[in-house]
Amino acid sequence: MKTKILLKEADMPTHWYNIVADMPNPPAPILAPDGSPVTPDALSAIFPDAIIEQEVSAQRWIPIPDEVREVLRLWRPSPLYRAERLEMALKTPAKIYFKNEAVSPAGSHKPNTAVAQAYYNKLQGIKRLATETGAGQWGCSLALAGQLFDLEVRVYMVKVSYQQKPYRRSMMQTWGAEVFPSPTDITQSGRHILQQDADSPGSLGIAISEAVEEAAGRSDTNYALGSVLNHVLLHQTIIGEEAKKQLELVGEYPDAIYAPCGGGSNFGGIAFPFFADKAAGKEIDLVAVEPTSCPTLTKGVYAYDYGDTEGLTPLTKMYTLGHDFMPPGIHAGGLRYHGDSALVSQLYNEGLLSAVAIPQLETFEAGELFSKTQGIIPAPESCHAIAATVREAKRCAETGEAKTLLFNLSGHGHFDMSSYDRYFKGELEDFDYPDDAIQASLSHLPKVG
Ligand SMILES: *Cc1c(COP(=O)(O)O)cnc(C)c1O
């Protein structure tokens, strides 16, 4: 049995897969903050032309520029593993495979899009990128990519994470980025929040407002987002394309795919290339896994909403908990966003994708089991995909089904050991976000469409 399945460098994909070409309905249009149709001009204040084109493209295959492939080769193609030891521990007849995106320099899948975005901005003559980061994974990825393409990077980091994850901050600084705890007093959005609450711990929505404001106000500066948008999911499809080739090498095809879902980028990345087969009639379950404390797909509504707290971004139709949703301080920082990718949302709404919400403790239990059997310590976000896979593998043990399961190991947990510490000390709790708090936040949705 092959436990580690590698692709040759020459077999690294040459094109990204654009799911829009295979969707039964065209994507819902993006609207300007006031509800009118969005103009390309509004987007070009913060994004380069190539990215805007990709955001609205319906072309099935989009070439990956050579300069981008050249950088991706530093760690790609990433390995696919058969998790035999986990299978044995679970006494399951199911076969469990996982794609290891933790092997990138930043430790997650996020550099796959950071590199592409930095490249297109450089091509356009942009000098600086402004962005936000929650747990620090995206900030690190963009800092790395900016460094490789000689762009300055400024990161607004959610204040609680800035305090809790000093080494993520040091990594960004090592790769040459400037990092500020958000909310700051250097943007209008930040000052507005601080007036209401001087001790605001910050949120991804607030940090996005600050970064977008800076990018919109300076012609040499653009904005880069690490998830949610169509072009981000597009850049991540290299994960699923590779995984498909790797499974082919061992004569396998998955019955189900699991990935953690924050804004949907690593889920779209691993699942979308298989959606083309599903659209053609193949049976495969594509499952987005989210925390019960931020249950966007499983408890949110499908409506137009802002991507940020202050209402500066365009409106997209998506599953949302409301743009002013304040997520509880759970440890899967990357899964705390109020909204979700428009593409994932639309396909989920049409019943073509599945979603499951899992409580925090079960995710850490799965992460511990995975660490002890396979050796790799997963990011708390990735633990969600592992927990969902473990649930299905245990079900297979009861029914005797020999299903083939695939999950995405979106990142390692080396900078999340304080979360593991709290788990081992018994200090972690399950938290179901209360329905009335969700209702309160949803009552502030913009009235459009
Ligand atoms: C950011 C992050 C996620 C969640 O983001 P998506 O856009 O939903 O993929 C998941 N896992 C890790 C390790 C992350 O850094």
Automatic annotation (TrEMBL):
This is Tryptophan synthase beta chain. The gene is trpB_1. It comes from Candidatus Thiodiazotropha endolucinida. Its EC number is 4.2.1.20. The keyword Lyase applies. The keyword Signal does not apply. Belongs to the TrpB family. InterPro entries: Trp_synth_b-like (IPR006316), Trp_synth_b_CS (IPR006653), Trp_synth_beta (IPR006654), Trp_synth_beta/beta-like (IPR023026), TrpB-like_PALP (IPR001926), TrpB-like_PALP_sf (IPR036052). It is an enzyme of class 4 (lyase). It catalyses: (1S,2R)-1-C-(indol-3-yl)glycerol 3-phosphate + L-serine = D-glyceraldehyde 3-phosphate + L-tryptophan + H2O. Signal peptide: none annotated. GO terms for molecular function: L-serine hydro-lyase (adding indole, L-tryptophan-forming) activity; pyridoxal phosphate binding; tryptophan synthase activity. Keywords: Amino-acid biosynthesis, Aromatic amino acid biosynthesis, Lyase, Pyridoxal phosphate, Tryptophan biosynthesis. Pathway: Amino-acid biosynthesis; L-tryptophan biosynthesis; L-tryptophan from chorismate: step 5/5. The modification N6-(pyridoxal phosphate)lysine is found at K110. Tetramer of two alpha and two beta chains. Residues 74-411 form the Tryptophan synthase beta chain-like PALP domain. One of its GO terms (cellular component) is cytoplasm. The beta subunit is responsible for the synthesis of L-tryptophan from indole and L-serine. Pfam families: PALP (PF00291).
